[in-house]
Amino acid sequence: MEFRERDIISIKDFTRAEIDYILETAEAIEPIAKSTSDMLRGKILATLFFEPSTRTRLSFEAAMHKLGGNSIGFAEADMTSVKKGENLADTIRVIENYADIIALRHPLEGAARLAGEFAHIPIINAGSGAEEHPTQAMLDLYTILKERGRINGLNITLVGDLRYGRTVHSLAYALSLYDIRLFLISPELLRMRREVLDVITEKIEVLESASIDEVLPETDVLYMTRIQKERFPDLAEYAKVKGAYRIDLESLKEAKRDLVIMHPLPRVDEIADEVDETPHARYFQQVWNGIVMRMALLALILGATE
Ligand code: NCD
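Above: inputs. Below: predicted complex with N-carbamoyl-L-aspartate.
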């Protein structure tokens, strides 16, 4: 298995064995995440974020720092030469002189793939429009594994914006490599993309519905998502689905006692604050797992692990 100098563009570029190896690496690196190391001393990560982010960018940077490396980058493309009309390919050709690896978030689908073709250094897709968010899927798998002890055999329910939500696209592809049942809950307008369904229904049992109640009693992992308002071409359409799902203590009455609730964050109104105090809530644990997973990925790609 070779990870050195590899791009992470789509979760579909990884085999089950590779993903399992990444999960094992994350487990091995977790103790280091609690302190620091100098594994990547002298290495530089560039974070190029053309879209808003809190967790993804800061966790990549923190992961690099914890491994002894450094980070540079921007979170506000308006302050860069992009504003003067520089295209993505040229931006990448410039940045690769300054860094050893790039984490890129861009509003256009295909942007990360394109960047990967131009760059001579590894590109990590930190979100490509509504398309994919592969490192989020890896940290989500790691969270499921840690919280449930396994991935196989679980009933996993993805709820909310399955059309514009990139995290659920990557996660659905990743989960289809395991032996699970997948419940997809969304308003009709926000059903899982056809291209994702085509791939995953070949591999696992998938059930689509508009109601959480129907599947909640059987659910082991409930993955809530935000309706992606900024991606709607028409805000009148957004108004129809806004607030479609909300989990609170009342709605969890029928849930399994060991139900795990996840959310890539940010949340808007999908999970009531009162749920945070229950043993089901794991979305802040997921944030921690994000830094662990990104340390593992940086170490693997930059060749710091044996
Ligand atoms: C998500 C994203 O940017 O796709 N956030 C994240 O990276 N954890 C989810 C979202 O914005 O709803």
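The two ends are 11 Å apart (CA to CA).
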